[in-house]
Amino acid sequence: MIEPIGNQYIVARPVYSKNAFEEEHKKKHRNHKTFLDHLKACCSCSSQKAKRIAFSLFPIASWLPAYRIKEWLLSDIVSGISTGLVAVLQGLAFALLVTIPPSYGLYAAFFPVIIYFFLGTSKHISVGPFPVLSMMVGAVVTKLVPDTGTAAMNFSNSSTVDEQKVMVAATVTVLSGIIQLAMGVLRIGFVVIYLSDSLISGFTTAAAIHVLVSQLKFILQLTVPAHTDPFSIFKVLISIFTQIEDTNIADLVTSLVILLIVFVVKEINQRYKAKLPVPIPIELIMTVIATGVSYGFDFKNRFNVTVIGQMPSGFQPPITPDVQTFQDTIGDSFAIGIVGFAVAFSVASVYSLKYDYPIDGNQELIALGLGNIFSGSFRGFAASTSLSRSAVQESTGGKTQIAGIFSAIIVLIVIVAIGFLLEPLQKSVLAALALGNLKGMLMQFTEIRRLWRKDKYDCLIWIMTFIFAVVLGLGLGLAASVAFQLLTIVFRTQFPKCSTLANVGRSNIYKNKKDYADMYEPEGVKIFRCPSPIYFANISFFKRKLIDAVGFSPLRVLRKRNKALKKIRKLQKKGLLQVTPKGFIFTVDDLKESDEELDNNQIEELDQPINTTDLPFQIDWNADLPLDIVVPKIRLHSLILDFSAVSFLDVSSMRGIKTILQEFIRIKVDVYIVGTDDEFIEKLARCEFFDDEVKDSIFFLTIHDAVLHILMKKDSSTSKFNPSQEKDIKFDFTINTNGGLRNRECQVPVETKF
Amino acid sequence: MIEPIGNQYIVARPVYSKNAFEEEHKKKHRNHKTFLDHLKACCSCSSQKAKRIAFSLFPIASWLPAYRIKEWLLSDIVSGISTGLVAVLQGLAFALLVTIPPSYGLYAAFFPVIIYFFLGTSKHISVGPFPVLSMMVGAVVTKLVPDTGTAAMNFSNSSTVDEQKVMVAATVTVLSGIIQLAMGVLRIGFVVIYLSDSLISGFTTAAAIHVLVSQLKFILQLTVPAHTDPFSIFKVLISIFTQIEDTNIADLVTSLVILLIVFVVKEINQRYKAKLPVPIPIELIMTVIATGVSYGFDFKNRFNVTVIGQMPSGFQPPITPDVQTFQDTIGDSFAIGIVGFAVAFSVASVYSLKYDYPIDGNQELIALGLGNIFSGSFRGFAASTSLSRSAVQESTGGKTQIAGIFSAIIVLIVIVAIGFLLEPLQKSVLAALALGNLKGMLMQFTEIRRLWRKDKYDCLIWIMTFIFAVVLGLGLGLAASVAFQLLTIVFRTQFPKCSTLANVGRSNIYKNKKDYADMYEPEGVKIFRCPSPIYFANISFFKRKLIDAVGFSPLRVLRKRNKALKKIRKLQKKGLLQVTPKGFIFTVDDLKESDEELDNNQIEELDQPINTTDLPFQIDWNADLPLDIVVPKIRLHSLILDFSAVSFLDVSSMRGIKTILQEFIRIKVDVYIVGTDDEFIEKLARCEFFDDEVKDSIFFLTIHDAVLHILMKKDSSTSKFNPSQEKDIKFDFTINTNGGLRNRECQVPVETKF
What we know:
The structure is a homodimer of 754-residue chains.
Chain A: E1 8-14, H1 18-24, H2 35-43, H3 47-57, H4 60-63, H5 69-97, H6 103-108, H7 111-119, E2 127-129, H8 131-144, H9 161-185, H10 197-220, H11 232-242, H12 249-271, H13 282-296, H14 299-303, H15 323-355, H16 361-377, E3 383-385, H17 387-395, H18 402-418, H19 427-436, H20 439-442, H21 447-454, H22 456-472, H23 474-494, E4 499-504, E5 509-512, E6 519-520, E7 525-529, H24 539-550, H25 554-573, E8 577-580, E9 583-586, H26 595-598, H27 603-606, E10 638-642, H28 651-666, E11 670-674, H29 678-686, E12 699-700, H30 703-718, E13 732-737, E14 748-753
Parallel strand pairs in A: 7-10, 10-11, 11-12
Antiparallel strand pairs in A: 2-3, 4-5, 4-6, 4-7, 8-9, 13-14
Helix pairs in contact in A: 5-8, 5-17, 5-18, 5-19, 7-16, 7-18, 8-9, 8-15, 9-15, 9-16, 10-11, 10-15, 10-19, 10-22, 10-23, 12-13, 12-19, 15-16, 15-23, 21-22, 22-23
């Protein structure tokens, strides 16, 4: 038991070096698990485990039984209907990006949702077409089936160009689904831990920019080529600005009006959240009105706006993907699979963070992968999640994927029954509705200021991710961002704020010397703290800082001393100097020899330990030496390295630290390392860190232990007191602690007797 | 002053929370340097600084005056002659790799050495042609000036194919020199700190493999295409093995004999290093013999071996590089510049590590860059350092770049006078001599075993660097290795070995609970230590480990308690339960209501703090609750997080830690964070980490401070003792410390009185 004694911290124990401590407190022998044990644990099988795996494969089995029908169902239905409507509109719009007829977009908005309902782990994302992904598929389609000229693919001649395009889109979708499924099964979804909050925020904002740009062509009604290469966003923008005078004013005005109304109503929804039973389904209202107006006033013919046009009703038979096309599109499919997953996962984690439930990257991969395979087989195209649609699903009150099912039902109704009603709808209206929901994602720009205040590196990650993803495109941009982000971890530790510590308040507290006024630094002792791991990239920095802190380079001092010693020996040999146990006796007054002649030894020799066994006494290097032999005088006799925050060393840094320790030890500076844990020392021992010079007795438990040890050693050496007899001697002493309870300025004398 | 008291660690001071400490010890206000200050310091000018810069630009100014003529000059001359001879042989051999006439290789072995003598910082590397670099230049030459068909370049028609090739090689060399110079001037040489010892070792070993493979064609006398793309090494090997039957036996035998002799003599040189005045210059001897034998027995005609052939003597006029070619070769030049620098720097650092002198990456870049520009203008090709030649220069006793100058003089003599003597020399002899010096680099394979024992990650870096550099080629391989190496820094901290601590020896020492036998863990207190920085990639791991350590999920407990509270309120409203200050009074014995009907609240509400202000007493959640209301009982009342090794947090981890702290605080577990430095806390404050729940009073200086605080709090709360009156009360107490001096098993009672 430890007895609390008022508000006092009172400790009396021996000074512990690491070795002394272990002598007194025996360590238990621990069997560390080997790699084999881990493998066994991983591959072992039990009914418990099987059940857990089953549940993780079918998340629906765990959440559906806990569904609260009374309170959630209404929200889910309302949300599902709103989302379904947006899904219909977006499906139609994004099919245009794939360069296939709009009706195929509805399949992409239907099939993946069904699979995700059973297999997905996010409750809030709305699975289905995503514009950037659609553009990526569209780029492949355009590459393999150009609108003009001969088709690059060798399809049966009977099929039309549109059929060929649908075929290519479906094939790419299935292949990217297979890639996602494989990644999920192989548990490679763990890579998502490398997507930090800042990165996801920057990435989704960049995605929103891409979506914004991709919708501009519909709002302005311009013909813009599909680009998904790096830097393509600029090409698209240039293309748009050079054509700006061809803008269809009717489309632009319709879009702006709808955008304005949607923004205002969304703001109302947000502000009167508590008072409104359900948010106003503005998308639904606007679609109905816009369709009606467009039909009633015959916008198509009057203003030459582009409308959706013919909508075939019902489903089409499934197709077998073309294996030949697999070969030509493997690279693109990989990019589509990764970006699709990254977008879905990053949006899902925004909501999982907000509502605090876990999502599982591998399961998401499996759900999306199977969804894409299924969807592709039924002529849909690659699905992920749309940022705006997920925002609708969540903001209209969606609680679970039940909302997703209702949205799929809406899509189903449109597919099989009422699709034809949408035929007069302007494409620009679709685009405006899509944009109306991006506000939240774009508002993430305010993150920059917040992050700048909080953490410069995180801010940098956000900005660089955003720039990479906007400029390089989402696929390459994501890779570059992750690489950059990992680099920041190196940056963070690369220039550690090393500091010199000193004692505060004369107890066992050591703080940065610069921070407090009344500090005590024992004479000739330096306490140096490195607050980060030391490894190849910062070992030179660490060395430099250490040399700065002690004020001299130990190697230089060592060389000077060895040089001086050589000189003394040479003089002795020539009989110009006598060395007796009492000191030096000179036989000449002045030395005319030049330096060069004396140091005919190699530099390497100068770096060796100082060997004075042939001299009858120890040279005091800080005293004046005879005959103008000058060596730098150093006051330092002990150096304490506080390694409590050094979480690891690598081989490079171990070598570097050993070198510098040796240099200090060779000039008779005692080095102590404190605050390391046992494993750290074990590792050093394993790496042959210790030898005759650098011994494992340099480790002490705390700074204070080391300081006390140094003071004691100093004490006993100055009083010519033999430390080995110490244990038979008793002390009578009194400590004055300048302590006391908080808020009380008093001196409490503590008398301690042995 | 701190008085050492025998070997005793005796401390008596108040228990310090971070706030209490700062109240007693006022912090000094420190002006941290801003970015502007740093900029000023960087751009300030003084004569001192100008001198330092001048010295760093011309390293020769500092080392030449200190040159020890008497002891070094002989070694340098011997080394210079040996190296010069190897340089001649290698220059001839590597010119073959560039696909230009051998004599141009001599220029590449002459000009850069002159520049490096004045500007270089390494004392031991031998600057000049490097086989892999020569292959890279050769690939560009072959691309732009194919041997057959029309030249891709638009040179004046008067020039021959060889002249065109020399022109391209020179242009690429000048451009890569310009790139190196620019990098050096812009101080981008700092990137070399990312080349760790393990990486350099793996990289140079891979380079040795590339050289080995590149020389095979000369030893076997086969025609192999020049490849420098990724995976090209396999193509070269396949090409060699498919032609193996066309091997010229005479060349093979000559090479093997020479290789054997060189190995044996090198071994003798090594073993009798002390006894030999200078190492046997075996390369020189073998060249003379081989040339003589080849000439005497007319190998060329008798065995159809390939010999060097015609050697024009003297220099050729300088040329202006072709600016048009710059555009076509910028990418290749960049790769050549980087690889050339990386190889030179990595070899230089091997020797700088061995002989312990500093080298300067930026200065190396400037020296190599100017060397290449100079060399290219005189029809040389890109130079770096050859591993084998540098090994010769060092092993034959080279001390400084004076040896380099002598080697250049040898090359000069061959160029202007005696080149024709080498005409009958077999090319395979050149190759065998080059290989004879690779032993040291190839011996680095033994590093793998040593690194595996020392540090698994460093071993992994070595192996991956080697594989990348061999398979992907040196340029791309280097990039991949550096990226991988940075990733290992993330790996190292990604799965920290978190541990639960407990008190050892009843004083202020806390160690891993699993490590020692007689540990004391205060009841209801957990001390959790995380030994690494916490950031986006390990925050989930940290949370999981923490929950494992405490044994329950605080969020689950919070939700259960809130649910129970709802249930109680509902029962109270229905009159089935009365809540009085004394406790619950039931009016029914059994409750038939189902769980589902009760929890008609949203999950978010369940996660809010428990609000019992409407109840007349605090609920003791660990007591049995009425009416089968079950909540998990927890024994934990305090959690101490030891963050002394957490060197930084990022925004993701701060959010994660705040969430989990809140969850613990909401279920009435006091959380304390100890061991952080002040900056850490300041940063948390800046990031709005603290609020009404998570207060900045949770910080204590050490684990023991926090434990004592907890025990005192517990003590005063159980004895219904009002802590606010504490300061007026005096204690009489006795501590028994189970301490004593080392090696002495005794109990020293310490009596402390107020």
